[in-house]
Write a structure and sequence with these properties.
The protein folds into two domains: 3-98, 3-Layer(aba) Sandwich (Rossmann fold), CATH 3.40.50; 119-183, no CATH class. Helices cover 39% and strands 20% of the residues. It has helices at 11-22, 34-40, 55-62, 79-92, 108-111, 122-130, 145-152, 166-175; strands spanning 3-8, 26-31, 46-50, 67-73, 96-98, 136-138, 158-161, 182-183. Strands 3-2-1-4-5 form a five-stranded parallel beta sheet, sandwiched between helices. The chain has a three-stranded parallel beta sheet with strand order 6-7-8, with no helix packed on it.
């Protein structure tokens, strides 16, 4: 049976995995969080591993089977992880395929100066927000939450949208976000 390694977010990754498994492919799916594992569910021909991987760990996982290719179906804004997946594939000589979700935000030129600002890093965004007044709704998830909370230094200003998993809620607690200000 042909095997495919998939790095999955939540929605499109699950859908793609289901389609590939139904066509007889053996799928190994890597998700970052327990919530991602729950969303993936149990499927015949699909094994799911949970937890973020660095490049070395990716390469070790790729060596466990003879994979046809690696498919990156992570979040459109997960640029760092996509770069690491791509480098691991190059290192191991595996074809890298990237699924790109269609989005209105594809062209930065469409949004620049209109209704949105663009920052290259979370640090830049947090630094800019620190100088502004009022409440802040963060929909960036839990990964950079501690950075935002540290730079802004006033958790009462932050309202956060995170996945409803234990890891995300622990990150909120660690960052000092009051429970009524968590949307999970």
């Amino acid at each position: 049976m042909d095997s495919i390694f998939i790095f999955s977010g939540t929605t499109e990754g699950r859908e793609l995995t289901t389609q590939l498994a139904e066509r007889g492919y053996d799928c190994t799916v890597s998700v970052a969080t327990e919530y991602g594992c729950e969303v993936m569910g149990v499927q015949e021909g699909v094994s799911v591993r949970t937890g973020r991987l660095n490049r070395e760990q990716m390469c070790m996982n790729f060596r466990q089977k003879s994979y046809l290719c690696v498919i990156d179906v992570t979040h459109p804004f997960a640029g760092v992880v996509s770069d690491e997946i791509k480098r691991a594939c190059e290192q191991e000589g595996l074809p890298y395929l990237r699924f790109c979700r269609p989005t209105e935000w594809e062209s930065e030129e469409k949004i620049k100066g209109k209704h949105a600002l663009s920052f290259d890093t979370a640090w830049e965004a947090a630094t800019w927000l620190k100088e502004k007044e009022g409440k802040i709704l963060l929909t960036t998830g839990s990964k950079d939450l501690s950075l935002f909370a540290g730079v802004i230094a006033d958790p009462s200003r932050l309202y956060v949208r995170v996945l409803p998993g234990v890891e995300s809620l622990q990150a909120c607690e660690k960052a000092g976000i009051p429970k009524p200000q968590i949307i999970a």
